[in-house]
Amino acid sequence: MADLAQLETVSPATRLLEKRRLMYDKQEQFEKxxxxxxxxxxxxxxRERDMKANDNELHQKMIKFHSFFEENxxxxxxxxxxxxEERKLIESKEVEISSKNELLSILQQKAERIQxxxxxxxxxxxxxxxxxxxNQDEYSEISDILSRYNTLKQSNIKLEESKxxxxxxxxxxxxxxxxxxxxxxxxxxSLNNDVANL
Length: 198
Hints:
By secondary structure, this protein is mainly alpha-helical. The chain has helices at 2-9, 12-134, 142-197.
């Protein structure tokens, strides 16, 4: 207000100069503000560019994280499927092991029986060897003893069959004889009765 009062008391040329000076000051302030605004605008653009870069980087990281997450999810699903397959395989193998153990037990029992037979055959073989050694004039090989045994076995079978047939024939003849004796006894009793009556 004091400046305005002073301006009215001074000459118009001075006032004009003062107004120009004020205008230059205002122009200078405006230019300073304008430069400051440009700097701030540049700063804002830089910050905006940085924010966009950060946003893009964050977006890329999110995409990578999403793909990583999906990949892990798929890996986890594959791992679960594999676990299920492994469990099924383990169960089938356990069943197979159980059946193989049963088969092993059966085969071991069979092996024990075969071993016992082998041991018995060994004794039998040693016995045949001793027979061959004790009777070298009759048997030169164990096969000769076995051949002789088979011949005797066949002969024994034939003799047993003959014996059975003879026993059957004997039983038939015995039955016939008993039947004949009954008939003759009956005839004798009848004749004795006739003689007694006479």
